[in-house]
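Hi all, long-time lurker, first post. I run a small reading group and we've been trying to get comfortable going from sequence to structure in the token notation. Rather than ask abstract questions, I figured I'd post a concrete chain and ask someone more experienced to write out its structure so we can walk through it together at our next meeting. Sequence below, copied exactly:
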Amino acid sequence: MRWRQRRGVALLIVLWGCTLLAIMLGGFAALARTEGLQARYQFSQVRAHYAAEAGFARAVAGLQAPDIDSRWIADGRVYPFQFDGANVAITIVDEDGKIDLNAASDDVLVGLFKAAGANDDKARHVAAAIEDWRRPGDDPSPNGAKKAQYDAAGLGYGPRNAPFATVEEARMVLGMDPDLWARVQPVLTIWSGRERPNTDHAPPLALAAVPGLGDNGAQAILAQRGQSQGALAAGGNGVTHTIRAEATLDDGTRSSLTSTIRLRGIRSGNQPYAILRWREGDAE
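-- Answer (accepted) --
Happy to help. Here is the structure in token form:
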């Protein structure tokens, strides 16, 4: 009887041991599968990232092609590019076609915010607040805002009273709500030094801000660009550009980068460009 009881206990121990081993093997298999998936995802991300960087390098080369008629045009059009099985979409925008926060005139700023959907009153107030942000002194301009107005709005800061240091700083300006910011941010710059955008390169929203141009004039400029094939036909490129490269693999993995560069020309021993800003991904 005791012998049978011992056999029963031993069988039970064996069954529990087998069950435990099965659980452990299942866990190891799940862990191995998860790690395999993570490795494949990371490998795809690396491939997409370097494909986007290759697109950036291709854009720099396109901007400096020896044949001026073969140079890429920096007006926001999409240039497709294939690299290592990835589809890369490249856009280049010349910064002198954007609206300079530190140099734009009042009528250009008002035109921008109206074109972005703000009513006349809001457009005038935000434009004046931008001018007051960059202007020294504590006295607000008509419709503008200095420290007292920011305090009255419950904000714990005031204007810089000096030129904008970054484009993103403009989202802090009194009256700049998130929706308006999202619409105007792509056409803002601090690197052109122009009172109004260069119409040869300006994106549609920046064109709409140019006083006196009107919808018909803007459409005519955009139509003419669509027929041009080279930088010479588009009036030539400037020296400061924002390049965006987005790479997509066959499995849907995506990577993007956005960089603002200043071309230095091709000289022996010199870097052909300087990076002013570099951002990976879509986050601001």
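A couple of things your group might point at:
The longest strand covers residues 254-263.
Strands lie at 75-83, 86-94, 99-100, 188-189, 240-248, 254-263, 273-280.
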